Amino acid sequence: MDVNGSEAVKFSTARGYGMETLVQHAGQEPKIWSTDSAVIPPIVTSTTFRLPDVAETGDFVYARCGNPTRNSFESCIAALEGAKHGIAFASGVTTLFCVTNMLKSGDHIVSGNELYGGCSDQMKQITSNLNIQTTFVDSRDPKNVAAAMTPNTKMVWIETPSNPGLRISDIAAIAEIAHNNGAFLCVDNTFSSPYFQQPLKLGADLVMSSVTKYINGHTDVLMGIVCTNRDDFNERLRNFQLLIGAVPSPFDCYLANRGVKTLPLRMEKHQENAIAVAKALAENPRVEKVLYPGLPSHPQHELAKKQMSGFSGMVSLWIKGGLKEVKIFFKSLKVVLFAVSLGGTHSLTEHPATLTHDGLTAEEKEDLGVQDNLVRLSVGLETTSDLIADLEQALKAAIPEV
Ligand code: P1T
User: Fold this and answer.
1) Range of the domain at 288
2) How many structural domains does the chain have?
């Protein structure tokens, strides 16, 4: 388009334009810099877009309501989830905030009781202030979800596998319960990524992910995304992008779009390393218990196999001892880094009881197995034998006698 829909203007000194005008306009016409042959989508940082006419908009108007780099990324993740729509937000927790804001005062949520601590804290501390109460149930048994449904229940929220105990919830069974009660189901798919699990195909209405984790995969972007096939949900969530404005930056969208290109390769290697690490830890006399959904020792291995095509890179272990041993264990690691977050190329380990799930009450921690000796591992892409050797030497340092 030419300037303001009129004839193209040639910006040059010969035409008498001043320097102050030329620095704004010369060489900046979309015809000069835009291309339809670049292999990689460009980072479009413009916050505003030229409009064709009064009461007419082009594809883009203003960065909060749409940006070409963000659109590329959203379309890619929607395709991976088998969805019509993908709507990206500034973080995973913002995505939860926007999804729960589709409810109204007096509505009720039934949620799995094991969630990332930031998500359950948000439901308890912020969503509740909107007069939307949440009942938390052990969603491993769908009957618990059914029993908690009330006439006001409008949303069921589950995380599967869950953070940090890797509990599995039956997506198809819970979707049916939600629908029979006039509610919708949203699944937090962060731990699997769409590569290993596509909840919409199992009946969920919405699927969200913290892009910060496996989807971006490189520990350098904070972002969330929700995908859906429902046009009405898409409209409402896009309106939140516009009115709340917690949208990811074009640069972050570019990075995540770049990161996701290797999602299949990374997920296969995360899984390969996680299986090897989980097997080695299960045989270690210094370890009380190991959970990995891909091993037959996981109590819900059969359900995991039914709804997932692979088991990701998250391993949870309870070491022998308590806080003292756990502290020495973390300090002794050399390859695996002690840090929250997950899903990146580096192996990370964290202590849910004092970090990600610190907000839980003592009873909730006990009920979920978030004891002082629980260690969460996000198994990265390093050489398998280096990871196992590092974990084994740290366990030895922490628990010299067995
Ligand atoms: O950090 P953010 O992008 O806002 O995503 C929140 C979130 C949502 N859902 C799950 C399952 C998550 O694990 C997270 C974030 N989790 C961590 C930072 C963590 O260390 O567990």
Assistant:
1) 263-398
2) 2
Nearest CA owner, ligand 1 atom 2: 92
**pLDDT in the model for residue 4:** 64
135 with 238, same domain: the answer is yes
Ligand 1, atom nearest to 223 Cα: 3
Contact 228, 82 (CB under 8 A): no
CB atoms within 10 A of CB 383: 10
What's the one-letter identity of residue 296? P
For all residues of the chain together, what is the average pLDDT?
A: 95
- For residue 277, what pLDDT is reported? 98
pLDDT at 2: 54
Task: Report which protein residue has its CA nearest ligand 1's atom 13.
Answer: 116
19 to 7, 187, 243: CA distances (angstroms): 21, 55, 37
Do the domain assignments include residue 4?
A: no
What parts of the chain have a pLDDT lower than 70?
Answer: 1-9
Same domain, 329 and 243: no
pLDDT at 34: 82
Mutate to test the pocket of ligand 1, among 115, 212, 348 (most ligand atoms within 8 A of CB): 212
Residue 364 within any structural domain of the chain: yes
**Of 219, 241, 260, which residue sits at a domain end?**
260
Judge if 242 and 271 occupy the same domain: no
Task: Report the predicted TM-score, pTM, of the whole model to 2 decimal places.
Answer: 0.96
C-alpha 341 to ligand 1 mean position (Å): 7
126: in domain = yes
- Position 5 scores a pLDDT of 55
- Find out whether the beta carbon of 190 lies less than 6 Å from any atom of ligand 1: yes
Residue 357 DSSP SS3: coil
Q: How far is CA 39 from CA 36, 42, 258, in A?
A: 9, 9, 12
Residue-wise pLDDT for 176-214, tens only, equals 999 999 999 999 999 999 999 999 999 999 999 999 999
Helices assigned H by DSSP within 15-106 = 19-25, 30-33, 68-81, 92-100
State the pLDDT at residue 8. 62
